[in-house]
Amino acid sequence: MSTKKDKFSFKDQLYMDLALDLARAREGLTGTNPSVGCVIVKNDEIISIGQTSYNGRPHAELNAIKNSSDHLRGSTMYVTLEPCCHHGETPPCTSAIIKSKISKVIYSVIDIDKRVKGKTFKLLNAKKINVHKGLLKDKVSEFYKPYFLNRTKKIPFVNGKIAVAKNNLIYSKNIKKITNSRSDKFTHFLRYKNDSIVISYKTLNKDNPKLNCRLKNFKKFSPKRIVLDNKLKTNIKSYIFKTANKKNTIIFYNEAEKLKILEFKKKKIQALKSKINNQKKFDIPIILKKLYQLGCRNILVEGGNDLTKEFLKKKIYNNFYLFKSPKRLSKLKDYKEFNGFDILEKNYKSKMKIKSNFGKDTITLYKN
Ligand code: AOF
Ligand code: ZN
Description:
Helix content is 32%, strand content 23%. By secondary structure, it is an alpha/beta fold. Strands 11-10-9-8-12-6-13-16-15 form a 9-stranded mixed sheet. Strands 2-1-3-4-5 form a 5-stranded mixed sheet.
């Protein structure tokens, strides 16, 4: 019996899988545009590949068309997302596809952008290009979950992380490290994959963190720093304040003296006034909407105990990474403990261990 899926061969699947790998590799680095992967095949040979450019433009298809080592007449394009057919900040990919004489286009999922949604299929068909959609749809849709959330809710996709010791401490005076260097690499990978990082002024003042990506040669992909600081108590001697400029730092506050606000503005930090609720806490959905308007699409929240619990309680995290070390930390001096395990287990039913070589540390991913 033939099924709808039969229209795709095993090789088709391999090519689309490769396109997805290309999209994954650029995830988090394409600004406000989704990361798309593209593979062009002719006579069973890959003649070109393309990815959405850093910061989003030019698009993957155009990059693949331009990169081709051969004429495109008679070739097949595999692309993870429905190619665009609108004039946005760049011309439509469909025009480049038509001009290139590509014979067949296979895309996986429909673009939910209203300017594109479903229109490309008809447009390319009318130009006698053989078009198919739906190849590896489930796998590719899973990959585009953050993009779909971005576009439907107009908020960033929210990743969270916390690192706890065996006795659940997240801070102990004079101890710099809880997790091992392999887990730390994963933290830096998360910083690389998210365009912004959120912390509270409390964590900032206690840890004086750098919040950058320290994977070799990847520092330039460090996330934008977002600080939640109700009364502008961020220490002006901190690393974040000292290295702030108008592009890399945003501080949300609610009430602060004019002079204090000026001090932040002088440094060109975007200091944005935002509402608080009757428990004197920021209204997080408002902050998320604002961050989306400012171009944030994937954020990593590296909260302390309070901020993390607040996000867990309201199920704001889409993904939450719990790092656990087998070390016990001392309670003899100043220390901080994480006590949000009950809310975590209650609100996040889906969890899995991330399998990698993290030594004796474990990392568990909780999904909403
Ligand atoms: C593609 N290939 O690689 C990406 C697409 O303003 P523009 O011209 O850059 O258009 C942005 C829209 O294009 C974006 O909202 C999304 O619908 C689509 N992204 N499309 O054909 C790509 N990144
Ligand atoms: Zn395009």
